[in-house]
Amino acid sequence: MSPLTFGQTKQVQYLSGTDNEHTVAWDFWVTGGRNSGKWSKIQVPGHWEQQGFGAYNYGRDYVTYGKNFRFNDEKGIYRHTFTVPDAWKGQKIQIVFEGSMTDTEVKINGRVAGAIHQGSFYRFKYDITDKVQFGKENKLEVTVSKMSADASVNNAERLADYWIFGGIFRPVYLEAVPQSHIDWTAIDAKADGSFKSNIYLQGIKDASEVLVEIKDRQNKVVASSTVKVSPGDTLKQVSLSVKKPMLWTAETPNLYSAHFTLKKGGQTLYKLRESFGFRTIEVRQGDGIYLNGTKIKMKGVNRHVWWPETGRTINNKIDLEDVKIIKGMNMNAVRCSHYPPDKAFLHYCDSLGLYVLDELAGWQKAYSTTAGRPLVKEMVIRDCNHPSIIIWSNGNEGGHNFDLDDDYARYDLSARPVIHAHHKPGNDFRGIDCNHYENYYSSKDILAGKNIYMVTEFLHAQDDGGGAASLADFWDLHWESKLGAGGFIWALVDEGLMRTDLDNRLDTNGINAPDGILGPHREKEGSYNAIKEIYSPVKINLATLPDNFNGTIPVENRYHFTNLNQCRFEWELISFNAPDAAPGYSVKEKGTAKAPDIKPVQKGELKLNLPKNWKEADAVLLRAFDPNGDELYTWSFKVIKNKDLVAPLLKIPAKETDVTTTETDTNIELTAGDKVVAINKKDGTLAFVTPEKGKKNSFKDGPFLVSGTAVLQSIKHFKDGSAQVVECIYTGDMKKVTWKLHANGWLELSYEYTANGEFKYSGVSFNYPENYVFSAKWLGKGSYRVWKNRMQGVTHNVWESIMNDAVTGHSWGYPEFKGYYADVSWIQMDTAEGKFLVGTPQENLFVRLFEFYGLSGPVPLPELPKGDISFLEAIPPIGGKLSFSLNDNTASLGPLGELNKLNGTKSRTLYFYFGTPEPEGKEKQFVMPSENILTD
C-alpha cells in the first residue's frame, strides 16, 4: 500500500500503481483470447493485451476485414483487496479511475458503486463512503468490457485508426475529503489581470467562508479575497484583480497559483491549490486567433499517448520527454488526438509552454448526446484550469455531436473556443476551418475565403513522406496569409506496438500506424531536424554566403511575443577533417554576435563581427539560442570551394608511376603501377577497376544517364602529359565522357549531357553491390538524407554512417544509410573490397546510395534512378500518404514539390581513388575522434 497524505487537503491512497513503471498486481480473469478462463495476476495500470491476455485489435480492422468482422468483445474481471485507515472515518471516500477501456462496472464489498462508466479516456469517480469498512479489509471487483454496450461509444473511440486495447490503463486510487469541502474550481484569468473563479462546494452545513489567494512563482500573495458561504451553497464565484501580471504564452509560460481555503470561524476546513496563467484567447472572425491581443499561428503536431511496450499506459517521464521533443522542433502547439491525455502532459505544457487542443474522442463518428454529455463534463472539469489549453476540440473528422458544442462552456468559466477537427471542405465552425489534408493550392483557396484556416491535420508523415516534406511552402503560406493560423502535422510518433503474441516484435499494423516524425521509442527521423529549421523563430533564408559577404545576415523574427534581443547567438570558424581522420571538424576560432533588436514578426540583420581572417576557415557555423538557453538551430555556411577542398587530396599519394594503355577485344585498359582501369569499348562505361594486383573492385558500369539517352559514336585514347586519356563521344542526351588516369593513381571522369524539360532526377549512376558496403564517410550535408522538398535540417560536416537497412516507419536505426545526400564534396566508401574515395571540384552534388523507398503504397515512391550509386544534379521530391502523392503528383504540395525544371548542358568532373591514398612513407596513426562533431 502506498503512503497516505494527511492534513487539510485531499488525502490519497493508490490502489494501483502510478504509471507503467510502478504497478500493483491484482487478481485477473479474462473471458476470451490468450490465458482466458482462469484466474491469474495482472499489473495495474496497464492493458491486458500487453500482459499476455486476450487478443489484439487495430481499430480499422473492420474496414480491412469487411462488414462481417467482429471485434474481440473481451471482458476483464479484476479483484483487489484494500484497507481504509481508521483515520478516514467521518470523511467522504471516493474511488477514482483515471482511465479504463471501456465500459467499467465497479463493486465494493459486493455492492455496485454506481452506474457503469462508458468511455475510455476520462477520469470518473464514485462515492463509496457507505460501502467501505474502516480499518478492515475491503474487496474491490471491477469488470471492464473492451467494447462498449453503447454503439456510439464504440463508433467514437473503438472503430478508429489506432490500436484498440482493453483494461484499466491509468491509475486507480482512493481519495478522502472532509464532508464539507471544495469539490473543484473553474478559473478565468484574463490578460488584463482580472481573475474569476467558480468554486464548487459540497456538504456545506454551516456558515463559512472561502479565502482565495493568488500567489506568484516566488509564493508571494499578489491578490486575495474572501467569499461568504451559506449552508447548502454549492457554487460561489470570486472576482479579484492582479496588477500587471506576467502573462502566459507558449513563449513565456508564466504561472501563478490560486489557493482556496474553506474556513469556519477561523478554523481551516479544507485547502485546494490550482495552477493557472493569465491569458486572453479570442477568435476574431475573418481575421485570426489572438492571444493577449496578439495574433498567433500554430506550429503544431498531433500526439497519441504512446509507448511500445505498454501502449497508452505511460509515465511522467514520457510526457515530459514528448513536450521537450515538440518544443525541440521549435513547435509551439500540440493537438491531443484523439482523446484527452494524461494529466501530467498538460502540466508540462503549462510550465514549458505549448498551446494545446484538448479533444473529445470521436473518430469520424460521434458519441450520442446521452453518452457524450457526461464525458465532456469529465474532461472539462479535469482540464479547465490548464492555461496551455486554448481550444476544445469536439471530435475528429465528422465525429462531432453538435448538441455537445455548448456543453464545454457549462464547466469552462473562460469559455474557450470550440472547434470541429474535420476532413471535409465546407465544415467550418464558428469562423474556423480545420479541414484536413488540403494540398498547397486548395489551401490557398481556403485562405482566400472568409474563415480562419487552422488545419488540424496535414502532411501525413507515413514512412519518410510528409512531415517536413514541402512544410516550408505550407508554413510560409500560412505565415504570410491574414487568415492562416498554422496547423498540426500528423503525427508525432509511429504507433509501433510490441506484440506479446509475436515474440515482442514491433508492429505498426502495415501502413496504418507508421505515421510519426519520430519512431515509437522517439527515434528521430529526417523530418525532425528539418522541422526544427523550418519552424525556427529565428528565420534565416541565406543558403550560401555571397562573394561579397561582410558578416551581415538577414534575419526575420517569427516569434509572436519575443524580441530577438532576448536570444543569444554564437559563431564558430571550423576546418573539416580529412578523409583519413575521424569524422567531424576542428574549431579555429569562436565568438558571439550581439543579438539584434528585432521585434516580433519584423525583419532585420544579424552582424557576426567575424575576424579578418575568417575566409581561411572551411565553414562558418551559426547557433541561435532562445531566452531559456535552448538551441533553436545551427546553420552552416561553407566558405571553402570544392575545388580547393579536393585539390590537396589529388596530390596524395605523391608517388607517381608510368601510365600505359592497352586494348583488348572489349576494353581499353589504363594502367598505373598495379592499378588497372578498364573502359568498355562498346559504350564507354567503366568495365572494372583493379586497385591492386590481383584484386578487382566491383564498382562499374557507369557513367550512365539516369534520365536520357546515350549512344556511343566514337572512342579513342591518347596521352596527356603523364596521364592517359580515353575520350568518348555520344549522340543523344549524353554528349561527352572523358576518362583520365593520373600517374599517382587518381582516376578523373568528366562528362557532359543535356537536360531540357521536367525531370524527377538528373545525373549519372554506377553499379556496386550494396552487400559489400560497410560504411560511408562524406563531407557534405548530413547526417540525414534529403528530398527536393525537404532540404532543411542538414548541415555541413564530415559525417560517417554504417550500412543499415532501416526502413523509415518500420525499422528505426536512424539515420538511414540509403538515400539522397546533399552538397557532397567527397565521399569515401568502406567496403569488403577496400575503400574508394570520390570527390568533385564543382558545387551542389547530390549522391544517392542504393535501393530504398520513402513512401509505401501501391508502388513504392518516389521511383529511384537506375543503378546503385548515383551522382546527381537534381533529386526528386516526396509526398505524403494523403497529400495526393500516391499517384506521384507531388506538385500539388507546392513549388518545392514540383519536378526539376532543367534547361541546357550539365557538366561535372568526378575524381576517384580506389584504395587509400596515403603520402609516400606515411605510417598509419591512430586519430583521436574530434570533439566537435555535429549531432542530430
UniProtKB/TrEMBL annotation:
Q: Which Pfam families match?
A: Glyco_hydro_2, Glyco_hydro_2_C, Glyco_hydro_2_N
Domain Glycoside hydrolase family 2 catalytic, chain residue ranges per copy = 282-499
Give the coiled coil ranges: none
Question: What cofactor does its activity depend on?
Answer: Ca(2+)
**PROSITE patterns, per the entry:** GLYCOSYL_HYDROL_F2_1 (PS00719)
Q: Which reaction does it catalyse?
A: Hydrolysis of terminal non-reducing beta-D-galactose residues in beta-D-galactosides
Its Enzyme Commission number?
3.2.1.23
> Which EC class, in a word?
hydrolase
Q: The Glycoside hydrolase family 2 immunoglobulin-like beta-sandwich domain covers which part of the protein? A: 184-279
Q: What does the UniProt keyword field contain? A: Calcium, Glycosidase, Hydrolase
Query: Mind telling me which Gene3D superfamilies this protein's record contains?
Result: 2.70.98.10, Galactose-binding domain-like (2.60.120.260), Glycosidases (3.20.20.80), Immunoglobulins (2.60.40.10)
Q: Which InterPro entries match?
A: Bact_Beta-galactosidase, Beta-gal/glucu_dom_sf, Gal_mutarotase_sf_dom, Galactose-bd-like_sf, GH, GH-type_carb-bd, Glyco_hydro_2, Glyco_hydro_2_cat
Q: In this protein, which residues make up the domain named Glycosyl hydrolases family 2 sugar binding? A: 40-178
Which GO MF terms does the UniProt record name?
beta-galactosidase activity; carbohydrate binding
- Please give the GO cellular component terms listed in this UniProt entry: beta-galactosidase complex
Q: Which domain of life is it from?
A: Bacteria
According to its UniProt entry, the protein's GO biological process terms are: lactose catabolic process
Name the family the entry cites.
Belongs to the glycosyl hydrolase 2 family.
Q: What is the annotated quaternary arrangement, including any partners?
A: Monomer.
Name the UniProt record assigns to this protein: Beta-galactosidase
The species is: Flavobacterium akiainvivens
